[in-house]
């Protein structure tokens, strides 16, 4: 059985960043376990037509590996994956990554993490979960779905071998993925039945191809690239202020969305079905230039209802409406607040992280949980901003984790965050969420966990997040002597 100082679970942007920064800090015995066959995480898994980021590409990149060659303002999946892979290989992360290896169980034995993996047992002094909240597709438990005679797949498990041309297709779900793939497949299918449980606010997307001359200038004038990034960051932070103080920014954005919907959709009946019944902000805001246009095509039917059951080849809506189809595509999102990795990590008391959370995930700084010594989560609970790049959050959390591991190595101790510290932090976050757009009472978004609490959103600015994570305070931890050897 092999022993390592740090084992990282996942080789998406979180795992890559953690591996790079730990090695830069002198922690050389690092291993990354990745169940897939390449880097990229969610950008490896999601290959559906039209897949792209909805944050400007300049912000959707590592601060230490800026890219001046993005082809579009909002890059597509293939380009993002290529960027992530290139950064990983340029920094040697491929040298410490084991692809095709799944972590099945991790248990704290008092001194180390004992791991059961698909490649055999191993142990680690420090464990970092970088699996991310967009890892496991959410497959709805619909009566009759398993017996559907046609093809069924989730948007994050796109079946590229199945030809949609001329098919009758049902799409269940109208979130961020569906907004991107529906306009693409609408051009192919004979008929598309869109089951929409909840309408979303949609804003136009300021996307365009980046001209060659602009790319040349950005490549050779770094100040220009940095200046444009600062402008984009400021614009996204303005949107962020709207989440935190819904008036007047979010009210103004909703007026823009209402105007866009009215201009794009002439049919008053369809427009009514596409108008959300909640104020903008409590659900994710979507961006598209072709969503409304696709829904008005003669081969598309918008059914403003959830799905009750699948009866043979017929999808039956909650309102009794029916659609006979050849294929069902699930645009039903991910297990964001009930991440499956939590079911496989057992702490000092023998309970899994999922058992301890009991439906409401919580962690100090969204990163460490009492009773799980020397273990860290990247992109954990209450760190979602709803408006800016996950890369900024990942880098802030990684900087904190590197400091924590550095302290534990230097002091030769094991770190376990104090329960009272976490409780005070969680109370502070929940108090901060009161009055924000995220917590509006009239809608039930994926921000809310199984117990109805908002365990997703960060209630302050992204700048405040970065500052909060910039200083490691050892006094918030209980410590015990470590018997682990420290690698040079």
From TrEMBL:
It comes from the Bacteria. The keyword Transcription does not apply. Keywords: Monooxygenase, Oxidoreductase. The keyword Oxidoreductase applies. Gene3D superfamilies: FAD/NAD(P)-binding domain (3.50.50.60). One of its GO terms (molecular function) is monooxygenase activity. This is Cyclohexanone monooxygenase.
């Amino acid at each position: 059985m092999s022993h390592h100082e740090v084992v990282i679970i996942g080789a998406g942007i979180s795992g890559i960043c953690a591996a790079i920064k730990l090695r830069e800090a002198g922690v050389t015995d690092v291993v990354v376990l990745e169940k897939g066959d390449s880097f990229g995480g969610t950008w490896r898994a999601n290959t559906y037509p039209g897949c792209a980021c909805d944050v400007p590409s300049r912000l959707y990149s590592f601060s230490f590996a800026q890219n001046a060659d993005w082809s579009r303002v909002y890059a597509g999946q293939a380009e993002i994956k290529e960027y992530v892979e290139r950064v990983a290989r340029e920094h040697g992360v491929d040298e410490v990554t084991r692809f095709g290896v799944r972590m099945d169980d991790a248990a704290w034995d008092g001194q180390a993490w004992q791991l059961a993996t698909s490649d055999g047992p191993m142990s680690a002094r420090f464990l970092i979960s970088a699996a991310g909240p967009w890892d496991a597709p959410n497959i709805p438990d619909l009566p009759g779905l398993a017996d559907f005679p046609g093809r069924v797949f989730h948007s994050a498990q796109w079946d590229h071998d199945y030809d949609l041309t001329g098919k009758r297709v049902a799409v269940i779900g109208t979130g961020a993925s569906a907004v991107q793939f529906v306009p693409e497949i609408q051009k192919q299918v004979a008929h598309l039945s869109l089951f929409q449980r909840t309408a979303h606010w949609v804003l136009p997307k300021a996307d365009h191809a980046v001209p060659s001359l602009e790319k040349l200038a950005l490549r050779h004038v770094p100040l220009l690239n940095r200046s444009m990034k600062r402008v984009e960051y400021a614009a996204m932070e303005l949107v962020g202020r709207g989440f935190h103080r819904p008036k007047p920014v979010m009210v103004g954005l909703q007026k823009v969305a209402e105007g866009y919907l009215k201009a794009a959709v002439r049919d008053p009946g369809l427009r009514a079905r596409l108008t959300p019944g909640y104020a903008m902000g409590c659900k994710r805001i979507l961006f598209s230039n072709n969503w409304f246009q696709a829904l008005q095509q003669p081969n598309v039917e918008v059914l403003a209802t959830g799905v009750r059951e699948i009866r043979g080849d017929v999808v039956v809506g909650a309102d009794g409406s029916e659609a006979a189809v050849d294929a069902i595509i699930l645009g039903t999102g991910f297990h964001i607040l009930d991440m499956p990795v939590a079911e496989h990590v057992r702490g000092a008391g023998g309970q899994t992280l999922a058992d301890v959370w009991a439906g409401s995930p919580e962690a100090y700084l969204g990163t460490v949980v009492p009773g799980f010594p020397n273990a860290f989560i990247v992109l954990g609970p209450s760190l979602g901003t709803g408006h800016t790049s996950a890369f900024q959050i990942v880098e802030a959390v990684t900087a904190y984790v590197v400091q924590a591991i550095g302290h534990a190595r230097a002091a030769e101790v094991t770190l376990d965050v104090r329960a009272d510290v976490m409780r005070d932090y969680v109370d502070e976050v929940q108090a901060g969420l009161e009055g924000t757009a995220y917590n509006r009472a009239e809608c039930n978004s994926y921000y809310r966990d199984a117990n109805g609490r908002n365990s997703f959103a960060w209630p302050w600015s992204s700048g405040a997040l970065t500052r909060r994570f910039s200083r490691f305070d050892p006094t918030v931890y209980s410590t015990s002597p470590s018997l682990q050897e420290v690698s040079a």
